[in-house]
Amino acid sequence: MQTANRATHLPQTVEPRNPGMPLDLDWVMRANANRSAIERRAAQLPARRSVKKDHQAAWLARAISCIDLTTLAGDDTEGRVRRLCAKARQPVRADILEALGLPDLTVGAVCVYHDMIAPAVRFLDGSGIPVAAVSTGFPAGLSPFHLRVAEIGESVAAGAAEIDIVISRRHVLTGNWQALYDEMRAFREACGPAHVKAILATGELGTLQNVARASLVAMMAGADFIKTSTGKESVNATLPVSLVMIRAIRDYHEATGIRIGYKPAGGISKAKDAITYLALIKEELGRDWLSPHLFRFGASSLLGDIERQLEHHVTGAYSASWRHAMA
Ligand SMILES: O=C[C@H](O)COP(=O)(O)O
User: Which residues form a coiled coil (predicted)?
Assistant: First the structure.
């Protein structure tokens, strides 16, 4: 378990962080993914879940606590980040939170580009909510390697407690697992005490087998979390890709005893989809993973729909969606 360090916003690890391990190419090459079985299982998931009333509210509150509330737009301003941080501190109307018995509920983190780290840290001061920064030439990851490493250092110095790096997709597409491992290792080292999420950009990796192998290599190289997407690919988080990544996390845990976090990101905007993801995590990895220390949604608009559902749960009426536009 980890707890937020309110003084520094850096996560404190009670159980050890993932130290990584030497690249085990035999294991990587054994990793496979049976597409039709995975798609069959993924297709059953939303239909099998029908969570009602109090259970639904509890799942949705859990989902909020696991959101990396995100703004990653070229026209981001301090004003937008200030509003986002206010929403992160109080994600749902105070009376609704009181009625749910969760007056202190917050999101898991706020996720921004480098230039917005300092304002976000300021606006979140005293809240214990960490700032996550996308890095390494996000979203394509094609800037010079030394600049990608330097960017991580600058973002940590600016106050980011979590760094979301992007991998070089070409290393996966050409099967250069050593290059992927070395890159990830260097990124992890540059992060120092900040936790590192490895964005695989699964929509650009070609096959589920590549997703399985890239997941393993990222974990062997020390990733604290593996994350599906930047939100900028044409295909972002999906349930089949999630199954593959979650099962890689399970294999890594069985082999090493280390728990790696999972972050689906991009295109998750409905409360019912959030519940499907949480149910998937519970079924495949167990309750331990249903915590912001091991699970996050990367999402810019999911909170708005969850808030509407919670308002309906408490008041019996839906509010207009424009009232939740900030999330
Ligand atoms: O990592 C987070 C994503 O960029 C957010 O994607 P979204 O805007 O589709 O929710």
Answer: none
